[in-house]
Amino acid sequence: MSFSKIKRRDFLKIMGWSGVGATLAGCDMPTTVTLEEGKEKVVSYLMPEEYVIPGVGVWYASTCQQCPSGCGIHGRVREGRVLKLEGNPESSINKGRLCQMGQAGLQAHYNPDRLTKPKIRRGSSLVDATWEEAYGLIAEKTANISGSKFAWMTGSVSGHQSVLLQAHLESIGSGNHFVHESINNAIWSKVSKDMLGDSNPRLRLDKAQSVLSFGADFLGTWSSPLHFSTEYAKFRTSPRGTLIQVEPNMSLTGANADLWVASKPGTEGALALGIANQLVTKHGLSMAELPGSVQSMIRGYTLGETETATGIDPEQVAKIAATLKQRAPSLVLAGASAEGHEHGYQNVAAAMVLNIILGNVGKTIESNGEFAYASMAPVKGNNQSLVAFSQAAADKRFDVVFFSGTNPVYTAPKALGLKESLANIPFKVVLSHFNDETTAMADVVLPLASGPEDWGTHVAPYQAGRGEISIQQPLMEPLSKETQGFGDIILTLLKKRKESAYEGFADYYAYLRNAFSTIPDEHKNGASDEEFWANVLSKGLVDVGVNATSLKVKGVAFDLPKQLGNSSEMVLAPAARLSFWDGRHANLPWLQEAPDQISKVVWDSWAEVHPSTANKLGVKEGDTVKIASAQGDINVKVYVYKGVHPDVIAVPLGQGHDAGFSRYAKDRGVNSLSILDPKVDKMTGELALYSTNVKVSKAAKSDDVLVRFGGSETQVGRKLVSTVPADVYERTEGGDHVA
Q: How confident is the model at residue 37 (pLDDT cuts 50, 70, 90)?
């Protein structure tokens, strides 16, 4: 095909490089490169390829697809099969590390429950179909559809997949793209944008001497856990940084903290303002950059008022303030529990006030810059989209909806009525690897290639001042010839609507190959197109830089009501953990078998209950409790644990899937999201995950036992672990030690 009839500006837009002064030698470029060139004739290893040594693996770079963080990976391939995944040292995101979810990506690839053929609904059942039948039905249903009646709902998306997805929406005349992630930092991003002018500032744990986190599990699930784990290691080197974690139930980050403070959800903002009061009145710090109303609010949070609002010992509040002042520079973060409240915005804003008073902006909080190519920049998911989509479905706004990378039927609380409202959408198409709760309600199911089988480009939502585009390349041939990659599916859909613009690309590989041929010359460092492409595949990424920006403190007024945490009712905490994530990995037996980082429970759900609460309820570990909200109830076994607030009952996310999801997730545990109240943050519309009051009572004992690794969590008065003061550690093990 010749691109000579396509305007240069439009061609750059198609390729994802629009908005920059890209230099092209011409637009009439060959597009003969396809996956056909990758076909191999399988012969005996008596006559191996000269670069293949039987029994010796070859490592190839790609990008992990197990969560939205966008970590770089290396896959070890031997005799045509990918056998092991590790982190890519070239990636600035994970720097060679890989978490257990990333390692389990191999099991997602080889999972026996993967979808292998397209399906079409016939009556009440989904039956196998051909790709031609599936695409034909989609073309029929979308041929004359109005843009306002069409929508996409996806997880976080970026890179050239985002470029093509937006092109597909534009081809229909629709702007309806709902991006949903149950685990997100949407309110932190909003507050950062409002108060610093940057929704995604760079957080320098490596420069901080003290960190105060209000529910931000940055070592487990918040933002970019592997990146922050690497930065945390630097934070803990001499001189050793001090970590203070405030949250309703202990997270992986909390388990590593020097001081862990149990808080009731909704009180984090009051505690932050109480600490701010101490910094101003006792330590002489200025709050001149804040609006007068915020200054007045801070003055009102004396130690006595803070204790009334939070229940936290005044000495503890004073100690935290003193630590932040003495161990400067500091860094204050706010995550899940602070965000997950009806006043989540105010809680996070109060935490950001501490950063401003402490002078952290410009020291431990820097600008990340703007990604150079806006069309490929990450579109981050949130829960506000889930709420908005549920309402749109209830209002019968859409006739056709495509889903990919998200399972809203599982993640939506029952109170939103999404499962029932999907009946109002006449035609639903789901792109999926597995038959999950949303897939089961589809009219057409398109089976996706796995991460190790697919092509793609990705831009991580959080990058440390870099502008990396990471490549996803197949590590082996598809296990099933009937699956297709996300990019190939979108490209096929586009060809049916805008054939003249996309007919020259035989497949998604050809599209990507052309895209990297037309990348601005400044990124090629003098290499030819072939050399540059080979380098990108070998390295796994290309750094295209960022547009420099700077932070500017903005005085934003907000009002935080008092007495938010004084209700006598218990609060449900649907805690996220680094394993099942939001439930998407419950079908992987490696992760079911891996002990939870805190409770050490395997293959089940559990409820974390404080010992004093357990005594009141008359329950012990392994007993079953009924947790009832206004929206329903769940029965779950008890794990008695001091690392949870007495007025909080925590049930981690991930279990409780419908029987059709997987043989490994069938009839296991409960879905704590299902009984949440439909409350939202007043400022952002974000679903308030930590605002559901529940009644807890002892239930009939289940025949099942709570299976967990490990034994006693107490030393029973015996000195099994030696401890030393920090100053002694610094002299003997730290930087001041002289051999």
A: very low
Instruction: Write out the two tokens for 108.
Output: 């997602």
Please spell the DSSP secondary structure of 554-603, one letter per residue: --------S-TT--SSEEEE---BTTTBTTTTTT-HHHHHSPPTTT-B-S
Report the C-alpha gap between 218 and 232 in whole angstroms: 9
- Domain extents for the chain? 8-113+454-479+506-544, 119-182+376-447, 186-366, 570-698
Residue 445: exposed, middle, or buried by beta-carbon count in 10 A (0-12, 13-18, 19+)? buried
Residues 602, 707: Cα–Cα separation, whole Å: 6
Q: What is the pLDDT of residue 560?
A: 85
Phi and psi (nearest 5°) for 720?
-90, -30
Give yes or no for a contact between 160 and 515, defined as CB atoms under 8 angstroms apart: yes
Nearest alpha-carbon partner for 518 in 15, 162, 19, 164: 15
**How many alpha carbons lie under 13 Å from residue 267 in its C-beta half-sphere?**
26
Query: Which pLDDT value is given to residue 563?
Result: 64
| Cα–Cα–Cα angle for 418, 634, 412, rounded to 5 degrees | 20
Tell me the C-alpha distance between 312 and 467, whole Å. 42
* Pairing label, strands 693-698, 632-640: unpaired
pLDDT category of residue 36 using cuts at 50, 70 and 90:
very low
Give the span between the Cα atoms of 519 and 23, in whole angstroms.
8
**In DSSP terms, which residues pair with 428 in a beta bridge?**
401
> 107: which residues sit within 8 A by CB, 6+ positions away?
588, 589, 590
Pick the CATH number of 119-182+376-447 from 3.30.830.10, 3.40.50.300, 3.20.20.70, 3.40.50.740: 3.40.50.740
Average pLDDT of the chain, as a whole number: 88
| Euclidean distance between CA atoms 598 and 607, whole angstroms | 12
Are the CB atoms for 627 and 694 separated by under 8 Å? Answer: yes
Tell me the C-alpha distance between 156 and 681, whole Å: 21
**How many whole angstroms separate alpha carbon 64 and alpha carbon 285?**
44
Q: What is the DSSP string of 260-276?
A: EEE--TT-HHHHHHHHH
Q: Give yes or no for residue 500 having a pLDDT over 80.
A: no
| More confident site: 332 or 517 | 332
DSSP-assigned beta bridge partners for residue 693: 571
Which tokens is 575 given?
């805690």
Other Cβ atoms closer than 10 A to 1: 16
- Give whole-number Cα distances, 671 to 369, 493, 573, 700, in Å: 38, 35, 12, 19
Where are the alpha helices (H) located in 343-471, listed in sequence order? 344-357, 384-394, 408-411, 418-421
In 3-state terms, what secondary structure has residue 194?
A: helix
The rounded distance, in Å, linking the Cα atoms of 564 and 69 is 33
In this structure, what token pair is assigned to residue 701? 């004992």
Highest CATH level, class, for 8-113+454-479+506-544:
alpha beta
Rounded to whole angstroms, the Cα distance separating 128 from 115 reads 10
- 570-573 and 624-629 beta bridge pairing: unpaired
